Amino acid sequence: MAALPLFKLPVLCINNVLINTDIISLVSISLISRRSKRLVRTTKTSLTGFIIKFKKDMTEVQFVLSDKKEGNWFFEIEEKESSGGQEMEMRYALFVCSSGCPFFRFNQCNNLYITGEKAMRNEDLKNVLENVLIKSVCIIQLPVNADFECNKNAFRFNEFSSLSKEGGHWITREVFLNLKCSRIHLHHTLLEAHDFMAFFERWYYSNDKHFEVMILRTDKTFNGLRFDGETVVFFGVWHNRFPDISGATIFI
Asked: Which residues form a coiled coil (predicted)?
């Protein structure tokens, strides 16, 4: 069967072909040239997003359609030596194949989950938090260096969690008071009672109608109170005084 000279066809014909092409093939076509990338980007598809998983030895990209999940791409992680002689894993915000060539970068997502046993380099984590538009949820479940700093205005997610058993000390008073999130969950911080009161007073005297709940676990004592090695503070706002709980099961 002769090959179809796709890009020699009129634009309307090209669009009709692309509309009936599966997602995996569309991605492959978009990598051919700038023109092919532009044509694919303007094609209406049922693609609604991606599920991206950074694993120990590879990165998995799963395509999500409006009615199902279709296809997976796997990229091996290449390790390179930095100028300091330490190995760096190319696994954050950049997808690489075994030869190290970049496929594409992403600059926005609905939910971002970062998990691992080792801390990211400060500049890598800073790049993700400052340059990737996270529309809903950001969960960091890996150690973060205590000297990590980034633009405080970057923390404007709907939900933010820092859940690592180690490395929660980067959540300083300044970072804490700049969180603009509806739901906050922090583990192993060094925040104290006066830090929490400053957060509460800022919310109380503001026009914030979106904040819902905060769970704060700190390694510091709260006015001498300390339970099982850490202090847990729960602060919730009840926006709807009389919610409809018909059919709900309540555990106390």
From this structure: none
Provide the whole-model pTM: 0.61
DSSP structural state of residue 121? P
Residue type, 121: R
pLDDT of 3-62, one tens digit each? 777 888 888 888 888 888 877 788 778 888 888 888 888 888 777 777 777 666 666 777
The DSSP-derived string for 39-94 is HHHTS--SEEEEEEEE-SSEEEEEEEESSSEEEEEEEEPPEEE-TTS-EEE--SS-
- The pLDDT, as a whole number, for residue 125 is 87
Q: What is the 3-state secondary structure (H, E, C) of 127-179?
A: HHHHHCEEEEEEEEECCCCCCCCCCHHHCCCCEEEECCCCCCCCCCHHHHHCC
Q: Which of 48, 103, 100 is nearest to 79 (CA)?
A: 100
Domain boundaries, the chain: 107-239
Helix (H, G, I), strand (E, B) or coil at 161: strand
Diameter of the chain by CA atoms? 80
Of 113, 189, 121, nearest to 150 (Cα)? 121
Closest to 180 (Cα-Cα) out of 156, 214, 146: 156
Element (H, E) at 198: helix 193-204
Kindly report, residue by residue over 83-118, the tens digit of the pLDDT. Answer: 443 333 333 333 333 323 333 456 777 888 888 788
